[in-house]
Amino acid sequence: MKSGFIGIVGRPNVGKSTLINSIIGKKIAITSNKPQTTRNIIQGIYNEDKYQMVFVDTPGIHKPNDKLGKNLNDQAYFSINDTDIIMLVVDAYDGLYKDLYDFDEIIPVSSYTKDNIRDLIDTLKKYLPDNIRYYGENDITNKSIDFLISEIVREKVFNLTEEEVPYSITCVTESVEIGKTSYNIRVAIIVDRDSLKKIIIGSHGNMIKEIGTSARIDIEKLMGKSVYLDLFVKTVKKWREKEKYLNEYGFNDYKS
Ligand SMILES: Nc1nc2c(ncn2[C@@H]2O[C@H](COP(=O)(O)OP(=O)(O)OP(=O)(O)O)[C@@H](O)[C@H]2O)c(=O)[nH]1
Ligand SMILES: [Mg+2]
């Protein structure tokens, strides 16, 4: 048995979360074509008979302009200190930074076509330092179902809205109830000012309907059962600056 923790780091929007999903073979981290999508440290657990690799997705390192931004960088740096192997992800279009550092390995991959993903996994096996199983062999992430649900909703907002809107919201799963044939799930979309409520709801409720429909499809895949999804929008002024909300929404979990 060999095991270890592998930190996935890099600039925003280079494909870190897409890579972790491709390695694990399931969508555990949300992705978008906008920077700063990932806001939490998310572990993806890859299992084989004799191997367990814990991949740690991190927020992209960037120049912060609010408390949340600073916190995202802190999480990324924290997880670098806490892993056995560091995998720096760069966009191949930016060129391979071979002279940047004396890397042990450089492996070109595509998360879309899965080119070289197998090679990447096999190469990493050489560097695993531990010999215990950290998680059950059927576990794929350390995050709760509630967290994964709220992230799916946030992904839809990220992909369906523009400019500052994706950055001004967060999502919280308020309840998950098991009914006879389906789950009843309530998720709050938190905005930092009332004017954004209108944008999230959209004219005649079109936007929130679209967010809800696409989120429900992904949540049903995750839960394996039909889902009734109830979304509502709530204003919490300046939640990105308030320690209380950053704690409540899980952005300070890495400190404990
Ligand atoms: N063509 C191509 N695009 C990719 C690949 N991997 C990721 N992308 C795209 O790159 C964009 C960013 O992907 P993410 O996985 O969200 O990037 P990230 O590094 O996690 O971004 P942050 O969480 O914001 O730091 C998305 O539009 C992806 O679809 C790949 O292998 N090939
Ligand atoms: Mg990401």
Q: SSE string, helix = H, strand = E?
A: EHEEHEHHEEHHEH
Q: Give the bound compounds.
A: guanosine-5'-triphosphate, magnesium ion
The overall pLDDT average reads: 93
Q: What would you report as the Rg, rounded to the nearest angstrom?
A: 19 Å
Return residue spans where pLDDT drops below 50 for at least 5 consecutive residues.
none
The number of distinct β-strands equals 7
Measure the end-to-end span.
Answer: 29 Å
Tell me the number of structural domains: 2
CATH topology category name of the largest domain: Rossmann fold
Report the CATH architecture of the largest domain.
Answer: 3-Layer(aba) Sandwich
Q: Provide the spatial order of strands within the biggest beta sheet.
A: 2-3-1-4
Strand coverage percent: 15-25%
The helical percent reads 25-40%
Fourth CATH level, the homologous superfamily of the largest domain: P-loop containing nucleotide triphosphate hydrolases
User: Structural class per helix/strand content?
Assistant: alpha/beta
In DSSP terms (H or I, runs of 4 or more residues), the helix count works out at 7
Principal-axes geometry comes out as globular
